């Protein structure tokens, strides 16, 4: 398979390109609108056809490139049914999957950061969006977030994967690019080391995080696919 | 919306075309391989682009046109994840949905005839495949069929729709083209008139139906999308 990790510095967002070497079909996970020229250049350079753009959730910190990519490449916009984003093309639910050549991209519903968060599993990798981050997790105080739900999502849907599964998060603020399920189960400072659900809820309820700086622009834009 | 019901006489199969008047995008539900020229003529005549072919399940009585349509029109093949049909493009689960212009096509998982049966709901219509038929239902003695499961699927997923919802089945052997949810709740001779689950199971277990005449050809072919 062809794999590439893009980084958007303003919101520290990771975008992932996965493509089939056989069919040259590609998907982008969590593309950012300001980076479309980079994606286009990569696709052209590697002779790839973009067939789907997937969002792990409705982002509050950057604007999705979904609509821009659809207009430019004719790809389909994919996100969870609970997102309420009516401009999507394919609305997945837990267990849905999309095939791209020899790659099967499986959706696992992982709500808690938002009510529509989905992680995507393919070939020993999991793209966790803002559910599980490296040594952290998404905040739970906006967009129908819920710490108890997030705890269950991470434990049941992500930590149930094999320990050597590579974890690719939606963001990292310290330059780390990936982790593993085993590493996060052991060492994640919010969820690892056998932390209980009650402890996690208390921790999340006392984070006292600032109001997200782009949420008032990003959320309305993302509800219309970044138009 | 644009709507057309096709009939394939050998297996008495109904195929449905739904299309957006705005975008001219179309889907076919349960297309039959022998009828591809008819679909192509209709699409051309109405200036439509086929974007998805949907199967309600892995059929045992006819061969799907999924692969033929994909090759010819570049559409995506859609069916339930449980089908085990690895050549599909989009594997839906309960609650998944696909948007085609102004049409939202919602999947409701309705197993019991097979373990991968899905009904599609759009604009006050439900396409029930072989789960609910007019004054009948699909058999439950092959392909992981189960009468108790089918009873629950029909009651919870189809009879819970408004009574005036139009029912479009996967087959009819007596020339009837549609029914309504209310009509089937009242009068379906296997499921209507308050028939209990226990009564339904006994009835289905005593049907003594003949071995399906095309199953040994159709099933292997449909597991590879009708190639």
Automatic annotation (TrEMBL), chains A, B:
InterPro entries assigned: Metallo-B-lactamas, Mito_Persulfide_Diox, POD-like_MBL-fold, RibonucZ/Hydroxyglut_hydro
Gene3D superfamilies membership: Ribonuclease Z/Hydroxyacylglutathione hydrolase-like
A Pfam family this chain is assigned to: Lactamase_B
GO molecular function, one term: sulfur dioxygenase activity
One of the GO biological process terms: glutathione metabolic process
Keyword Acetylation: yes
Record keywords, A-Z: Acetylation, Dioxygenase, Iron, Metal-binding, Oxidoreductase, Transit peptide
Highest taxon in the source lineage: Bacteria
Residue ranges of domain Metallo-beta-lactamase in the record: 12-171
Keyword field contains Signal: no
Cofactor(s) essential for the protein: Fe(2+)
Stored SUPFAM superfamilies: Metallo-hydrolase/oxidoreductase (SSF56281)
PANTHER family, per database record: PERSULFIDE DIOXYGENASE ETHE1, PERSULFIDE DIOXYGENASE ETHE1, MITOCHONDRIAL
Family: Belongs to the metallo-beta-lactamase superfamily. Glyoxalase II family.
Protein name per Swiss-Prot or TrEMBL: MBL fold metallo-hydrolase
